[in-house]
Structures are given as structure tokens and as C-alpha cells.
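Severity: low
Component: inverse-folding endpoint
Summary: output formatting inconsistent between runs
Steps to reproduce: submit the following C-alpha cells with default settings.
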């Protein structure tokens, strides 16, 4: 048991930064992301002995982050639609224009339904394959493809096709 705790502690220290990033992209709030990471690491620790290969620990933790975030969205009121201003016209310009584009994309990403946001975060921000995304979300490959497609469609409708830099064809893994 002591060896398990040591190996888990090493895993948590090595992978927490990456897992925190995924959690933050899912919930959009630093404090909630920390809570989400802690809950996912707790779930991973509880399951540690059942993980036959500790190489699967990151995938297990990522799935715990994803499913926990989706459950939070379903149960809590913090997922309610947040007010936003009009999306600015996106034109080529200086650095401040890029910051505005980034802020608009972030705002629209946060407004997506939970499963669409999770699918886009895992596919494009975390660069997981369709299969890895499906495993993390606990769903089929087809569901991932449809969630990503619907999410990108909404982003393009709100921001314009040129503002959504996801150029890979849907369904193609890395």
C-alpha cells in the first residue's frame, strides 16, 4: 500500500499541471478547476489498485475530470448562461485584435453545452484522438464526432467561419 501511495504521489506531481489545464478549459474558472482536479485525483487514487497498468492513470484521471465536470453542469446552477456583449467584428489587426478574438472564442466556448464543450476541449485543446476523446467522455466515437460537429457549427455561426481555427476534418485522429 505504501508503494502504491508513493507511485500515485509521483503521478499526481508529474501530471497535475496538464490535468489542471484540461479542468480549467472545461469549467472556465480557476477555483472550480482546482476543485475538479482534486476530485478527479481523489477518484483516481481510490481506483489506483484497480488500474492494472499505471500508464492508464492519466486517461482514468482525464475521464474523471470530464465526467465530473459534465455532472456538475447538470446538477449546479453555475452552468447557467452567462451574459455577454456582442461578439466583436473579427478583422486582421494588431495584438489587441488577437486578444479580442481570443476573448470572443473563450466566451463562446464557455456558452456551449457541457458535452460539446468537453468534446471540443479534449479534441482540439488537449489534442486527443477521436477514440481517446470517446474514452475520456465515456461515449462512442460517433457521439464524439456529432458533439464536436455541433459545437463547431455553433461556434462558426456565432463567430464566423474564419474565426474558428479548427481545420482538421472531423473524425480524423491525430
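Observed output (run 2 of 3):
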Amino acid at each position: 500500500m505504501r508503494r502504491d501511495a508513493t507511485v500515485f504521489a509521483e503521478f499526481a506531481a508529474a501530471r497535475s499541471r496538464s490535468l489542471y489545464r484540461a479542468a480549467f478549459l472545461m469549467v472556465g474558472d480557476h477555483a472550480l478547476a482546482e476543485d475538479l482536479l482534486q476530485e478527479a485525483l481523489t477518484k483516481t487514487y481510490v481506483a489506483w489498485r484497480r488500474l492494472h497498468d499505471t500508464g492508464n492513470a492519466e486517461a482514468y484521471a482525464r475521464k474523471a475530470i470530464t465526467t465530473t465536470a459534465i455532472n456538475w453542469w447538470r446538477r449546479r446552477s453555475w452552468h447557467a448562461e452567462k451574459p455577454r456583449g456582442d461578439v466583436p467584428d473579427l478583422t486582421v489587426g494588431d495584438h489587441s485584435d488577437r486578444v479580442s478574438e481570443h476573448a470572443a472564442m473563450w466566451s463562446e466556448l464557455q456558452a456551449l453545452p457541457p458535452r460539446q464543450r468537453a468534446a471540443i476541449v479534449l479534441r482540439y485543446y488537449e489534442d486527443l484522438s477521436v477514440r481517446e476523446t470517446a474514452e475520456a467522455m465515456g461515449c462512442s466515437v460517433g457521439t464524439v464526432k456529432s458533439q464536436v460537429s455541433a459545437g463547431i457549427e455553433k461556434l462558426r455561426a456565432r463567430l464566423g467561419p474564419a474565426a474558428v481555427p479548427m481545420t482538421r476534418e472531423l473524425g480524423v485522429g491525430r
